Amino acid sequence: DQQVKQNSPSLSVQEGRISILNCDYTNSMFDYFLWYKKYPAEGPTFLISISSIKDKNEDGRFTVFLNKSAKHLSLHIVPSQPGDSAVYFCAASEGGGSNYKLTFGKGTLLTVNP
Amino acid sequence: SAVISQKPSRDICQRGTSLTIQCQVDSQVTMMFWYRQQPGQSLTLIATANQGSEATYESGFVIDKFPISRPNLTFSTLTVSNMSPEDSSIYLCSAQGQAYEQYFGPGTRLTVT
Question: Do the Cβ atoms of A106 and B101 come within 8 Å?
């Protein structure tokens, strides 16, 4: 029973364009969400997070949108760069994040073509 | 953010043996965690490594199979005991950041033959 789903195993975009990575969740108790980026042979790197009291959080080229009613969040990368090519994981937790247990999706491989 | 190192980075082990993975954080952290990523799967939390007390294991993981030590606020070990090919995975440790994010080590790629 996968509580966090990333339905697109891969995504390919052109450099300079927008990348949109999607994530759906089924557990209504989740109220804190995170995105991680992972390069081969490295551990996941924290990118950005959002609490359920917000519907948008922005950090430079990265913006996360949360639609609680749809149990859906997305990560927008604008503009996309070749160095953004990596696997992106969505993760969720309960208790506003204070419940430390992270439930991860399976990841989406983003390829940004020059 | 915390910088986390793990040793070994990879290993090939025989069935029935055990492997201990070390995790070092460059600063003192309250909470450290151990995850497993099986091929084609997401990261799954194995346990929380508590300093000065026993680790807290998630459903499906037991201390006899995955004993964990946490002797101080910068170091933890995970042992994978009596290994079988099904234990072939990437094992990652992480540390809690100042907010609710976690920072991950590079992982240990384990292959059991």
Answer: no
